Amino acid sequence: MCGFFGIIYSDERREMGEVLFKAGKRLSYRGYDTSGVGVVDGSGNVEIRKDVGKIEEVAEKHRFAELSGKKGIIQLRWATFGVPSVRNAQPHKDCTGEFLGAHNGNIINTPALRMRLESSGHKLMGENDGEVILHVIEDYYKITGDMVQAIVQGTKDLEGDFACIITKRDEDRMFVVKKGSSLFLGKGDGYYCASSDLASILDHTKQILTLSDGEFVEFGTDYFIVRDLDTGEIIEKNLEEIDLDIGTVEKGSFPHFMLKEIYESPQKAHSLIGLMSGNVVYDEGVDLINASPRVFITGAGTSYHSALLGTYYFSRISGKLLNISFASDFREFYAPVLEDDDLLIAVSQSGETKDVKNVCDVFREKTEGKIISVVNNLGSTIALLSDLVLPIASDIEISVPATKTFVNQAILFLNMAVLSAKKKMLNVPTIPFEKIPWILEKSIEISEEYVDKVIQAVDRFNEFYILGYGLTYPAALEGALKVKEVVYVHAEGMYSGEFKHGPLSIVHQDYPVFFVSTIEDKFFVLSHIQEVKTRLGKVITVAPEDPELEEVSDIFIPLPTDNPYLVPISATIFFQLLAYHLGVNRGIDPDFPKNISKTITVD
Ligand code: F6R
Q1: pTM exceeding the 0.90 threshold for the entire prediction
Q2: Residue 360 known to be catalytic
Q3: Which residue is catalytic, options 50, 354, 357, 598?
Q4: pLDDT, tens digit (0-9, with 9 covering 90-100), for 416-454
Q5: CATH 3.40.50.10490: does it fit domain 248-428?
Q6: Which CATH architecture has domain 430-589?
Q7: Which residue of the set 2, 164, 193, 360 is catalytic?
Q8: Measuring CA to CA, which residue among 262, 261, 305 is closest to residue 568?
């Protein structure tokens, strides 16, 4: 959801357009509807080229490749303030044409700022909030004559969570500001670059500085200065060598990132299991959970589903109730009852989801309690504001649908529930953690074997149900979310016991209903299957091998594990692959489903 990248060289570079295009491609996984570049040449001339559409189309139409320059910015925009249009696309200039800039996030007081700016004579070209930033800086520069002061004072007027990049046409420096959205600076060979997203910097360097909220950076070709956004005072910070492989952001031989990332799950699970066995943070997390009288857990979308699975793990394995809510519902549901010794577990792959950040904000407002975040992106806003960060170690996930990160979130919760139970001296069920990578590999293999048969059975329907029971309920919800997201059909995930209370009436001849079951729950599920079968529905069951379940199913997908705690993870792999193949068969690009974005940084 929006993203920018900026770079400064010591001399004019003919490859500027190419460099920006490549960075834009890296940003594109976040979801967007307009693309644009702004380039400043060695004489201080500014050239902006932008349009509605995919980066490849816009770059070709506006011949990005021919752009040379000393400083450059690329921005991909996901529309919030102002429709997707050329005038609302970024980057923007101010009235004087002195300032060039772009942003990521939202300036929520844009309407009021626009009125103020227009009444004092500013001419705004569109409705976009990014444009407002440039005009505010223009005003404060007029007063202070100093970029640092203009940023310190100007950003005080900007409400919301955002990061932005600004440069003055005739200066050999750029500025980036972090106020709620993620921001990274990278040191290349003789140049610096900055971005709202790590993926676009990795092509240049692994020497990275992760900015914290309330900081801004001035950078030139051979220096950077970090300052406090409130006071302008200098903050000492150093670059760090980060351990991320550029291969993570390449598709390799896979046609799509989604498929590549599903296939990466076994290896990422292996890394996480290794990391958890030798790392005290997970231990600290469990101690906090065990010691807290009340624990709340929250997330959005797929992360909510892994959190829900986590609540099942904790209540069943360690007898601990985690109070769960959608991040977007937390304020309404739990905020009124928060107390000082409460603990919050915030689950977010990106660590940038606004709904989850809002929960952290309200939690901080209402209690002295601690926040644990379960994140993939360690430099993210949510990671930086929490007391303890538990990494899921999945490496960057590019494809918009979350896949490998769901798997590692689930494994993390399973491991923590087991650790929690051990610390309480409870009897712990056997979980073969060391076998999980193999189970995931086999899950992929088996799913690929059955997926065509399932597609034949369901492809003519534009709706179906996926039902789970107990531990498999989160897998049913997650399976349905993947199908909706990638296939654009209405799949509904539901508790199988609830189906008879209304939805059953929808079933008719061949109507597809998926069931996900563990062996221990099969007697309930068998009864729910019969309810569908007797109405002539098509029953597709995803479960460990079992003659009775197989017998009553029209199609049976045998999972490679009968461990009830691993069945939901293994079954989710099947639904990820089903959604992927169904979507691709319908001509959908699963990496960039329409209308949504990888990182939802708005309310
Ligand atoms: C679905 C999906 C989304 C995200 C949700 C939360 O495939 O990816 O539902 O799970 O937007 O994102 P994070 O985990 O980054 O907070």
Answers
A1: no
A2: no
A3: 598
A4: 999 999 999 999 999 999 999 999 999 999 999 999 999
A5: yes
A6: 3-Layer(aba) Sandwich (3.40)
A7: 2
A8: 305
